[in-house]
Specification:
Helix content is 59%, strand content 10%. It has 18 helices and five strands. Strand 3 and strand 4 form a beta hairpin. Helix 7 packs across helix 11 and helix 11 packs across helix 15.
């Protein structure tokens, strides 16, 4: 009973932090518009997030605020288009991206490369814009927000034609990911456990080395807060949906043990430890003592991130510095410690510290509890019907009837 009460209170506090985040998100950007328009400018709202700027009664341009989802959450972009249809100024007024990735995009001048383009430009990576290596999701989100804002002004205020964009794009890496998820499902269903190394290597190459998009607590925070880009279907979102689907179908956490790139590396380090006879197996008492540490760390990080109005800072995993060579000072400090410890204790990060693994195992437990509850209700109903039939067949009951 105590555990249920504690779980309920924890979920209630988490829900309250999400509500605080959603209520306080956004802001009044009118002062920023006046600053961008220049001294002595007047700014008035036309419709929605479209504003008109003027000086001494003459229109000088238009503002529009739009948002797009990056790797960890929304990126709010404010653009200023002059009356000739040229993008003159651009401000990222609010963002919840992973700090190291966002700072990298800003430091290489990605925003400066957008300025000066026409309002009806494509604003698309690989077409008229170059993405930023190891920060593709963030640069794509900025480009998408600029495209939506500029095209809105071009169509509604400047009578300009804009190029059509497809609503859903699936590329090669998406299809490879779907194939990997389906292969994992088949292998575990037919108990082909010897092929687990194959899927781990595939996950390491596809998710870790190529896409650098392992599941993080920031991804889960984006889902909880509703900051999801259904239009572009980012790689991590397809992965997360697929992993949730595998949990619902199989009742097992297949991501950590069949797919995760860091899990593959952890097993390699563990094999080295066994080969060198330096591995150490923690006792059952120690494992039980730290059983819920991962989930507790995840809860603390999520609540803190939502209260700080930035879901992306919930990610404290060591994946970014390992695979993308980007990360905070804490992540860079934790990485060598965990890699070194992984030689002596098998999957030490996965078993005791990984927030994603803790949440996925928690979902597995919830799924099993729901199945058991449904089975008990069905069994109880069957027993009740059986008892009723037995009563109806009793001689005394037939005589009364």
């Amino acid at each position: 009973m105590k555990k249920k009460y504690l779980l309920f209170m924890s979920l209630l506090i988490l829900a309250a932090s999400v509500i605080v985040y959603k209520v306080q998100a956004g802001g009044d950007y009118l002062p920023k518009m006046r600053e961008m328009a220049g001294q002595g400018s007047e700014v008035k709202q036309l419709a929605g997030e479209i504003y008109e700027a003027s000086q001494q009664g003459e229109i000088t341009g238009y503002f529009n605020l739009q948002s797009a989802i990056g790797y960890a959450g929304p990126v709010d972009v404010l653009v200023f288009i002059d009356k000739e249809g040229q993008l003159k100024k651009l401000e990222i007024v609010q963002q919840t991206e992973t700090p190291s990735f966002f700072n990298k995009v800003m430091s290489v001048g990605f925003v400066d490369n957008i300025l000066g383009k026409k309002a009806n430009s494509q604003f698309e990576l690989g077409q008229d814009l170059d993405g930023v290596t190891n920060a593709t999701f963030t640069s794509r989100a900025i480009a998408e927000a600029v495209r939506k804002a500029s095209h809105t002004i071009a169509m509604t205020q400047l009578n300009m034609e804009v190029p059509q964009t497809t609503s859903l794009k699936l590329s090669l890496e998406h299809y490879l990911l779907l194939g990997l998820l389906f292969a994992v499902f088949l292998f575990q269903k037919f108990k082909l456990n010897k092929l687990r190394n194959v899927t781990l290597i595939a996950g390491f190459l596809l998710i870790g080395y190529w896409q650098k998009a392992l599941l993080t607590l920031g991804n889960i925070a984006s889902v909880i807060s509703g900051n999801i880009s259904w239009q572009n279907m980012p790689f991590w979102l397809i992965l997360l949906i697929g992993v949730f689907a595998l949990i619902l179908i199989t009742g097992r956490n297949l991501y950590c043990y069949w797919i995760c790139p860091y899990g593959a590396l952890s097993e390699l380090l563990g094999a080295f430890g066994r080969f060198s006879r330096t591995s150490y197996k923690p006792c059952e008492r120690s494992i039980k003592r730290f059983k819920h540490l991962r989930l507790f760390l995840a809860w603390i990080a999520l609540v803190f991130a939502f209260l700080m109005m930035n879901p992306s800072i919930s990610s404290y995993e060591i994946f970014a510095p390992l695979f993308a060579w980007e990360g905070t000072a804490v992540q860079w400090l934790m990485l060598p410690v965990m890699l070194f410890a992984g030689v002596f204790i098998l999957r030490i990060w996965c078993r005791f510290f990984c927030p994603v693994g803790g949440i996925l195992d928690f979902l597995v437990t919830c799924r099993r509890s729901c199945v058991q509850w449904i089975d008990s209700k069905v069994m109880k109903n069957k027993l009740s019907q059986k008892q009723l039939r037995q009563i109806q067949l009793e001689p005394g009951h037939q005589e009364k009837a």
